[in-house]
User: Fold this.
Amino acid sequence: MENNSVSKFDVIKKINRSLVLDRIKSTEMISRTEIAKDLKLSKATVSAVVEELLARQLVEEVGKGESTQRGGKRRSMLRFNPKSKIGIGVDIGGTKIQIIMTDLIGDQVYEKRVEATNNFEEIIELIELAIIESKVDREQIIALGAGIPGFTNPETGIVFDAPALQWNDINVRESLQNAFPFPVFINNDVNCAALGERWLGSGDKSDDMFFIAIGTGIGSAIISNGKLVYGTDYKSGEIGYQISKKDIRSGYKSKPGMFGLFEQKASGEGLRSANYTAKELFREYENQHSQAVEIINNFIDELVVVIVNSINLLNPEKVIIGGGVSESMGTVLPHIQSLVNQLTPIKSKIELASLSSMAGAIGAVNYAYQELEENNLL
Assistant:
């Protein structure tokens, strides 16, 4: 019984802390009294939470507000202090590693892109070098988030299949955590890119969003009620394996590690099979080159089928298309939106990603911040 009451007390304390911090974040300045009134909490509860936030430097006092109508004492005003803490985001790709460091609202204090490596000691050295080059006080660094191109269990930290890095059943989080004093979090790279776009890009804080990454391969991420949707084995969003009716009796057999049928048709690798790069194909399409027009029209058709079916299933507010290929898709996006609107009565705005190759690293640090806040560690 005692354990239950302690547990309930901790839960209530966590909720109150989150409510107070979110309320301070949502406004330029606010007093303790206003917070208590807005959240219907006691002044004692608010004061206790605020004192903790002040001690953690997450909140700062910034002078006095106006006096009360009765001419009483002017209230001390509070505001969020995003620059008090720094997080590291690392997007570990098959060809490049992107490292960024941001404050709590995503303002960058450091950014670097280097050649990829799958050697942990070298990755740790790159992160250590980034900390040195940034000249950030190490005491300010509160977390590291890393995006991995493969099947990843963010709960255990195990990457159980990342072909681009030749990692199989490796506890990546543990390997990184042993090297640094702050918490380390890992996730799939497409999930991270989705979080990045939601936080600072085209997602624009949308709580219900479907993200499609079209690069060498194709993947997707689902955000519902502001949270990533993982699936039973953390394999949700593998849209590269989507099929059409004619594929059922084609004799095709899917195997782990190989491109799915949709991926073969619509990824950057699939487009390159026509001896064009994706960028060249879209340029030739704009110039009405007959072969390019046929290829891109087929690409559009395949993509629209997946988008329409995903909208019908998920009802997202937005569909964001990212990845390297998306950077050449500006001229075809209106046509894609038109076809989607024609084929489903469920409305969803389709946009291109805006963070380019930075999305994964930005999302990785955002994921780390989310986990800290969720676990009352921020």
About this structure: The chain has a mean pLDDT of 92. Residues 220 and 237 are 5 Å apart (CA to CA). DSSP finds twelve helices and 16 strands in the chain. The first strand starts at residue 30 and ends at 31.
